[in-house]
Amino acid sequence: MDATQIILIVFIVLLIIIYPILISSRNKKENQRMQEQTNSLKRGDKVLTTSGVYGTIVDLHKEGEKTIVTIETGVDKKKGYISVDAYAIYTIFRDEQELEKVEDSVSNNSNSNETNKQQETEKKEENLNENNQTGNIIENNNDKEELNNANTEDKLKENLDENKSSKKGRKKKTSEDK
């Protein structure tokens, strides 16, 4: 074995050993953060769930080992309630400014999504027009090919007829010569 193969094998072994360690430490940090967030939940907190539901916590209760959070969503007459596991809470908004920033970014994303959809529709229309033009060119080329094929077939028939007549003439000459 040469040096490059040895280095490659050592590198692979190190990756196999180090990768799980890095992943487990990252998971521990994430689990610890989630546990701290879950423990800090209280009534009145404005939250965002992992499924994208904004709301205010109105009730917290334990069911076995799980903490169930009831969230009030909507405004005025259109209020609704949803119960989720505490681990489904993605973010807690501690102040109104933080909540407004997130809501602004969401509305900006929806506006940019509408603009993107309009641009995509325009591009599709352009592509459709180009395809129609290309289709017309192809149809014209196909028509030309069909005409050329028809002309070629006619010429072949004429040549075949000429060959038959010349063969008949040769047969007559050979029969006369005999």
Describe the structure in your own words.
There is one protein chain. By secondary structure, the chain is α+β, with helices and mostly antiparallel strands. Among the domains are: 1-39; 42-94. Helices cover 67% and strands 19% of the residues. It contains 2 helices and 5 strands. The protein has helices spanning 3-39, 96-177, and strands at 46-49, 54-63, 66-73, 80-85, 89-93. It has a 5-stranded antiparallel beta sheet.
Q: Main sheet?
A: 5 strands, antiparallel
DSSP summary, beta strand count: 5
Chain oligomer state: single chain
> Number of helix segments?
2
Overall, the morphology is elongated
Rg on CA atoms, Å: 40 Å
pLDDT under 50 segments (min length 5)?
none
Look at the structure and give the mean pLDDT.
Answer: 77
List the helices and strands and how they pair.
Elements: H1 3-39, E1 46-49, E2 54-63, E3 66-73, E4 80-85, E5 89-93, H2 96-177
Antiparallel strand pairs: 1-2, 1-5, 2-3, 3-4
Q: What is shown here, in short?
A:
This protein is 67% helix and 19% strand.
List keywords for this structure.
178 residues; 5-stranded antiparallel beta sheet; alpha+beta; 5 strands; 19% strand
